[in-house]
Amino acid sequence: MIIKEALYVISSPTVETCPKPDKPEYAFIGRSNVGKSSLINMLCNREKLAKTSATPGKTKIINHFLINKSWYIVDLPGYGYAKISQSQRRQWEQMIENYLRKRENLVNVFILIDARHSPQANDLEFIHNLGKWEIPFTLVFTKADKEKPAVVERNVKAFADKLRESWQFLPRQFITSAEKKTGRDEILQFIDECNKA
Ligand code: GTP
Ligand code: MG
User: Fold this and answer.
1) Is the CB of 31 under 6 A from ligand 1?
2) pTM
3) Cβ of residue 41 lying under 6 Å from some atom of ligand 1
4) Which of 6, 72, 81, 95 is most buried as measured by Cβ atoms within 10 A of its Cβ?
5) In what residue span(s) does the EngB-type G domain sit (predicted)?
């Protein structure tokens, strides 16, 4: 798929103020600083579409981008950011749960996982919740350029092994680098197939 146009539409504090749910939508979520905004920019071939930052917690609200006038990408704020209060955390959880469970045009959630690390409890917990809510998702391993391929492979395998403990079928997975544009074609092709389904 060729991305001809990528437009920032709106940042919404709640699911109720998101754009009309009349187009297929793909959300990107994962731990704070995992590379969600960078991946979106890489997919869209735009350096500054979604705001990125070396400081975790940059993305705070639900950000909609309209692609080729026909589908939405959504940049969500990350989880697992240590420097927030309990009440902020609860607010985040409520906003995300509401968005994920109420957004009727949501086709797939891309869960971003840092390829440099072994499986983390908060990623597994988030996946567990998506399963409970019956929301379709795929896994995207990020920052692959920052580690040796053998280490990435080991971490990806360890993650699959963890999931196998509670899941009969494994979700699709992509290995990516926003830096090197790895995985771009695969993800766009996946979205294209979903849009046509
Ligand atoms: P929050 O919105 O704060 O939750 O962060 P985010 O998940 O959107 O991460 P963001 O895209 O802002 O990237 C965080 C940092 O990681 C930035 O300094 C990026 O330049 C860097 N980064 C993201 N993806 C990659 C990648 O594939 N390779 C490398 N080397 N760096 C990356
Ligand atoms: Mg971000």
Assistant:
1) no
2) 0.95
3) no
4) 72
5) 22-197
What is the token pair recorded at 74? 């959504």
Mean pLDDT by 10 residues, the chain (197 residues): 94 94 97 93 93 71 95 91 80 92 98 97 94 96 98 97 92 97 98 95
Query: Structure tokens of 65?
Result: 């981008």
59 within a domain of the structure (yes/no): yes
In a domain, 1, yes or no: no
Domain count, the chain: 1
Q: Which two tokens stand for residue 9?
A: 């539409």
User: Is residue 123 in a domain?
Assistant: yes
Task: State the residue range of the domain holding 101.
Answer: 6-196
* Any ligand 1 atom below 6 A from CB of 46: no
